[in-house]
UniProtKB/TrEMBL annotation:
Annotated function: Rep helicase is a single-stranded DNA-dependent ATPase involved in DNA replication; it can initiate unwinding at a nick in the DNA. It binds to the single-stranded DNA and acts in a progressive fashion along the DNA in the 3' to 5' direction.
GO cellular component: cytosol
Pfam families per the UniProt record, alphabetical: UvrD-helicase, UvrD_C
Domain UvrD-like helicase C-terminal per the UniProt entry, residue ranges: 280-555
Family statement drawn from the similarity comment of this UniProt entry: Belongs to the helicase family. UvrD subfamily.
Species, as recorded: Ferriphaselus amnicola
Protein name listed in UniProt: ATP-dependent DNA helicase Rep
Gene3D superfamilies found in the cross-reference section: 1.10.10.160, P-loop containing nucleotide triphosphate hydrolases, PCRA, domain 4
Gene Ontology molecular function terms on file: 3'-5' DNA helicase activity; ATP binding; ATP hydrolysis activity; single-stranded DNA binding
The keyword DNA-binding is assigned to this record: yes
Amino acid sequence: MLNKLNPAQREAAKYLDGPLLVLAGAGSGKTGVITHKLAYLVRQCGYAPRNIAAITFTNKAAKEMRERVAKLLDTREAKELTISTFHSLGMHILREEAPLLGYKKAFSIFDSADCAKIISELLGSPDKQDIREAQSQISNWKAGFIDPAQATSLVETEADQRLALLYGRYQETLRAYQAVDFDDLIRLPVELFRTHSEALQRWQSRFLYLLIDEYQDTNDCQYQMTRLLAGHRAQFTAVGDDDQAIYAWRGASVENLHNLRNDYPRLKVIKLEQNYRSSQRILHSANAVIANNTKLFEKKLWSEHGLGDQVRVYAARDDENEAESVVLQLSAHKFEHKTKFSDYAILYRSNHLSREFEEQLRSQNIPYTVSGGTSFFERAEIKDIVAYLRLIANPDDDPAFIRAITTPKRGVGNATLEKLASHAGKRQISLFDAVFEAGLTEQLTARQHEDLLTFCNFIARMQSRAENEDCAPVMNDLLTAIDYEGWLFDSLEPRQAEVRWSNVSDFVAWINRKGEADGKSLIAMTQTIALMNLLESREQETDAVSLSTLHAAKGLEFGHVFLVGVEEGILPHRNSESPAQIEEERRLMYVGITRAQRSLQISHCARRRRGKEWEKCEPSRFIAELPQGDIQFAGLMPEGAAPAVTKEAGKAKLANLKALLAKG
Ligand code: ATP
Ligand code: MG
């Protein structure tokens, strides 16, 4: 089973004498070690699959790992393994332990937009900047395990005092809705483990071995969760690469690699040095760029692969020309090499850069998937349907109640809803419960009350079905009963309605399929859906080109990579100014380069449209850091029809750039 691994990898897979850290560069087989170790633990060491948990960074990575393990084990064994993200593991724990924390098991999970709405209401302001700041401060407090009372005593300025109060009211609101936010999914299990030792023991004896991928990007909460779960036994394997730490902005701390050493004096460290992913020139490029960062850990990375093609640095005239040329090259390459669309990835620093490429791909009829962007689950039509599911699962979810009862419109007006809300507020109960209270009847006309009752009775009926029946018939009846399709076509342009309805149909088909595969009820699926929102869009199911942000591309590999928009102001991002921030941007560049197996093109534009204006763009400083012997320059000059840049011109340009940079 382990005979495909090299000696260092095999040592890591077999090591069971205590905590283990595998510290190694990109493409050295860290994730592979985890996959093989899962199989090894089950087959050779007698671990029951349900006693092992592997933690990945994205749902997509979890899915891929499960598929790989399934090839080494039988399907039943692979199914019983816990392979999930920190957030879904947290959700899983909370679902079972919710009552201990005063939550019901079918709690709702609010995404960032739901939470922003609550904050906006509490602030009494729609100002996006204010909301974002409040949200991020609250999130920081939560990540640091600071509760509202502590926050109030910690803050100094009056503005922060107000924020701390807001934090308290925000928490109360979530609790009233029986809802948690994404931070809570990890914070609450940690709190539970700290305060309920019997619960901690239950989970410690549930998971006897832990494996954690992408360890460099864990935050404090995740670190605590791992520590608590591992307990004194400390049987775990963490794998990571400090050069790929790219989530500092979300509170991740590469320090956690160091902390492991302090917290576990007998920590064993294994380094892997052979890269199996990329051809030599790509690897040289990655190494040369990252060499400009200060080193945390010394790492060598070498490869037995051939030199491979030169890395192309392509200068495009403008953003449209960049997209056009990338898509053209991609199609030509695919035609020539008889590859699949899924062998190609177009990677960029910021979400908005995908638009131009999407347009070009669509016009060429090339299938593609976008990850790391606006998720499928954030579309209005999907959120409408999910609101129903959320309400069915958790009638205390007031935001879902409001969305569901008003979409499609069913004659319940604002006046009715205001009376309902005020009654519920006075009585401190949910909107749903308030409908059934005698006190409310007096305030409404018989007709108004009747409408509310009809709606709530319908939800209650669906609820008992959602618990007991398969997803498919319940979903179908739900859509028919609310006539969502009819409402779309009544209220929108036919084309728009068609698109939305087809999204809804896709979504329903997906739920039905997934619910059946995982043996989950519609209620359980509702929490799963809420989680999908976190980092990724729907799973990729077809042969398609991947469009992805660099952040979302972590851990993945592609035959051929186009790294686009590599310009000052984009990568490094214009908001990243401090040396530490520039180093994080450089790690992003490193992550991008190291996704490529056989070919890599790095492109930049001479100018870009910003609104109606053209903005002049400079190639990224990271391009100047590439090893000259391994790169080839190509592309157009800004004036238009100028010939492709020669190697000499490219060199001169680079020298120029370096001189400019040296001048600062
Ligand atoms: P990243 O840092 O990007 O997450 P990684 O260290 O997790 O990379 P993997 O994704 O596990 O690396 O492996 C990279 C590639 O190398 C994969 O295609 C994998 O199949 C291959 N590989 C790993 N180990 C070996 C080996 N011993 N022999 C052959 N191929 C290997
Ligand atoms: Mg990996």
